[in-house]
Amino acid sequence: xxxxxxxxxx
Amino acid sequence: xxxxxxxxxxxxxxxxxxxxxxxxxxxxxxxxxxxxxxxxxxxxxxxxxxxxxxxxxxxxxxxxxxxxxxxxxxxxxxxxxxxxxxxxxxxxxxxxxxxxxxxxxxxxxxxxxxxxxxxxxxxxxxxxxxxxxxxxxxxxxxxxxxxxxxxxxxxxxxxxxxxxxxxxxxxxxxxxxxxxxxxxxxxxxxxxxxxxxxxxxxxxxxxxxxxx
Lengths: 10, 212
Prior knowledge:
By secondary structure, chain A is largely without helices or strands.
């Protein structure tokens, strides 16, 4: 999921 | 989203806007490293490859577009429109010495051996050293215009704030991402002597002069 590797960050 | 990351993103956006305005208003890119700007364009391109495939939020998509467009616009202004003012005599850092090691490292140390993940990891490693040509240029010329030092302060602050964001996320979400954190620490440490000079000199109205 996105939060796992900070992929929700810029 | 938390306050550290929001202020960090706004600081990052401010830095990019300061730089574009400085080049556009003064019609000159003196004192700015074009090599660093090329590296930043590579960082955003390789990091935001998922821009068209993964939707996180409107904020995320808009900011990614702004960063990509602004970084290419800056490279265009420096190497095309105002290339006569580009200081190529001092902007001599060999960026292949940054690109190749970061790329090899991203092949060796990553979370998943896929194109998107390796490219994202490469962009994380590259971003941590992308400012080196700029800091090298400032050290060679021995000084920086105050607007350039404001740009560097905002740019350096953004990743420092991201470090706080990752501490918050660790406490709130109980997980962390070492590749981003270690790279973020390296990136922020590279600004330390600049932060010291900025706070002790520029904020007192003096020009940023590096001790010769």
